Amino acid sequence: MKTVLPDRQQSLVQWVSQATGINTFGVKVRLRGNDLHILCEGTECPQRWRTLSDLLQALQQTNLDILTSNEQPSIYQVFVYGRRKGEQRPKWCHRVYLNQIDKHLEQVEQALLADSEKSKQVGGALIVSNESLARQGNPEAIARYISETLSILGVSVQVKIKPYKPKNSQSEEDRLWIFCHSSYSPDASLLAEPIAQKLRYLKLSGYQDAIIVSQVSGETAPDWLLRVDLTPPEVMLKEWARWGDVQAIARLLTEVLSGLKVGVQVSLKESTLHIFCIPAFDPLGTAPIPDKVVCLDAILPQLEAIAPQGILAATVYGQKAGDQEPTWVDWLALPTAKYPAFAASPLDLANTGDEPAIIFLLERLLNPDLDWRLLTGGVRVLLLNKNDLLHIMCDAPVCPGRQQVANKVTQFIRQLKIPGIMGIRVYGRRAGNKEPFWHYGVDLEHRQRLVPEATPEFAATSKYVNDLVNSETNEPILRPDLTTEDVQSFVTEVARDWMVTASATAKKFLLKSQLFTESHESEEQTPDVQGLKIALVWGTLGLLLTLQTDWVLGQIIARGTTTPKVANVLPSSSSKQKASLTSEKTQGEKTAFFTSTSKTKSPPNQSSVFNASEFTQSDETPTNNLAAAPLKEKATATAILLAARSQMPSFNVRQLDEQLALYKQRLAINGTPPDVLIIGSSRALRGIDPAALSKALVTQGYPNIDVFNFGINGATAQVVDFVIRHVLEPSELPKIILWADGARAFNGGREDITFKSIATSAGYKQAFQKTPTTANSSYLPENTVSSGEEKVKEEKPEISTYEAVNQSLNQALASLSASYPNRDQIKNLLQKQLLIFGPNQTVASQRQPTDGTSDEITSRQSVDFDGFLPLSIRFNPARYYQKHSRVTGNYDNDYKSFQIEGQQDAAFQEVLQFAQSQKISLVFVNMPLTADYLDPVRKQYEQEFQEYMLRLATSPNFIYRDLSRQWPKANDYFSDPSHLNRFGAYEVSKKLANDPMIPWPVK
Fold first, then answer.
1. Is the dihedral of CA 495, 497, 500, 504 positive or negative?
2. 40-58 burial code (b ≥16 CB/10 A, e <16)
3. Residues 6+ apart with CB under 8 A from 78
4. Distance (Å, rounded) from C-alpha 382 to C-alpha 395?
5. Is the overall model pTM greater than 0.70, yes or no?
6. How far is CA 315 from CA 204, 242, 275, 932, in A?
7. Chain mean position to CA 468
8. What tens digit of pLDDT does each residue of 655-674 get?
9. What values do phi and psi take at 288, rounded to 5?
């Protein structure tokens, strides 16, 4: 192809317009993957063959890659459409292969000479399909062939051949590398099997396998890798037939005898193969019986070449289909009779520990559909016998499910009873990955091991590296392989020793107090008198201590409250002026606090060596700059005020009350609900930036998209279901819901504390009374007087006699106490003193609302008016785990008794049905996690959650996007191991905006 750049061509549209003579307003161009789509339209539909002739002549002299940007991949084929303006569908369409333009031109010239009525029966040159060219092994032809399928999905393809040197081999071999470029991250499970089928269908020679690399445009690291086994189907059949597989032998014999119009039916009884030769096609029953000599001459060489394992002889029958007795019978001796090594069956060999036999039997077990294995390569099994464990790796283009594979494999190995094998370890992964997606282990006998064994070489992982070496930390070593009896006996011994020591210490303390005596000591004549004296002494001491404490606290509070009085002793001339200034300043501060947050703050991009408290920044402040949306005004103060003024009762979850108040205010101001609503737990609250998402959508052609973040700390599927279906009215719902969360929000086995707290609230009861709630003016700051005056009169509850006496005693004692009237000041004082003694102390809990951030950070951060919580802190494992405990998946309460089925699944199904009924698009985003957080236990649960979501991905109006392993090593995007910061939220927002599968609303 020539590479001449046409004159005065600055775009594809102008080039097509000048080539065809059609006005630029009648030309539309679209690039998808490696395909160029050109639509030509006019008041009358452009003539097909004349338009194609002009366009093909221009293509002959033009390199289209010059007209496109450098980032755009090469164009392999062009689709040309013609239609009349105003019509929806094109009248004609023609596909042009750019590597066969000369043949296309010849075809068009023949069509122009022919009558328009007969243009469909065009003669001339034969257009060779990309499939035929790809079978020859040409990389460019293979790329064109695969792009026919992937270009529809917006994925471009590039193919390269690279030499590599396999292990235990001195000669180099060629390997096929297929690079798939796209603007989004396509799901590997959706593309793996179609690509594998197309590659294997080509039956390429000279390649053992192919590597598929998915690359997102603009990123350096590949998104995912996939290995496709290119072993020809004939080789796979012969390999299984060699092990005596009846179905594979029948396939091979059918291919040989099909040319003789003979059909084959094969069965195996004991060690004899029975082969029935029948007419291949005999609907009327008139076909002759297959000839004996011809059939034996075709069958015997095949069986001798195969030499099936464990099959001693073959019996061949000739008959018609449906006949009870054969017309002729013959017996054939197989090579097994001469070679005793072939006599043992695969099952007998597997019982002795023969690894090839075990691999064959496992692959046959995991690939029941032979046709599917020949199409995609099926499930491959790798075996490694290490010490007393049998490690079994199962990989396929789509990772085999743990529930489908693990039980089958373990039950089969149990039946074999291989000598020396005391345990089984099963792994599953996608072909091409190094680390397994899941693992499963069973011990056949009791094993003495302090720690679990490291994963073998074919599935390299650092799962147990820290446990196999001596560690200098004080972290406990986990021993999941200990039996229940061992643990119970150890705990019993420790508990017995501890109980003896504790009881002895407590006994000594109680005896010294003289309130208790030894049970075996002789009692005195007047025990009641002695007990009364001791009780009187202790009671007097307690009363004196109470009075002394009350007096001391009263003095402290009195001393603290006398200081302002000294400041009031001022000259009369300036006292009024200063008092007025102070009152005005105070009133101004109150007004500013309650109406909006402070508007005087430094620009977000301003770098300074001082932090908000005018002290130098800590060592944890990173020096490198990351992209993020500008910080917006904080809205916590406004949210608190709006929630307090709301007529809606509280839900016992402060953040839900405040987020709802902000949302209602947004509705009242705009008059319409936002276009996009982000909802979920704290991972949504911190993980998607509405401002960044809205800005990124502008670049994609979606201007003025209103986005609100309704994230709630600790929200589960039940909480989200309650908010969407019961708290918000249908008129307050958006067009699209982004549900950002992960597996732990769907754990039906753990206690849902957040939802339980909501369920006991007054707001929950009112929500289920179906009381109409609208976005009224009570959420606006201007209507504060009227809403404050309207109060609900409640009936006073009846007070019992006990409560009345108790209340009167409390009032009497309070009148005598010096500190009781100032108890709130004492409480604040004690809190300040405790913070001085332990400012860095944190309580390790899985339920804390800050999810791993310190109180100091939380106090400086609050949600903005879009409901988003921007955190600037960056996750540094070395410093983070000095302040926080490292909690593994085994002991994480969020994953306790993990199960998808249950109340959370039921809530999710309700949300799906509700979204469909309301015609709301529901997009679930599995948020990113760090590699530090994804230990093997959590990986296993995440894999179960992935399978659960993929099963539901076929539901209408529901889209699933998995970003859980998007940036496992990018700690700068996280504030803690499982939560993003504002920099990570910015990247996620951009990625979602660029996703073409999400139906963003168009205004």
1. negative
2. bbeeebbebbebbbbbbeb
3. 35, 36, 37, 38, 55, 59, 64, 95, 96, 98
4. 8
5. no
6. 36, 18, 6, 62
7. 30
8. 899 989 999 999 999 889 99
9. -70, 155
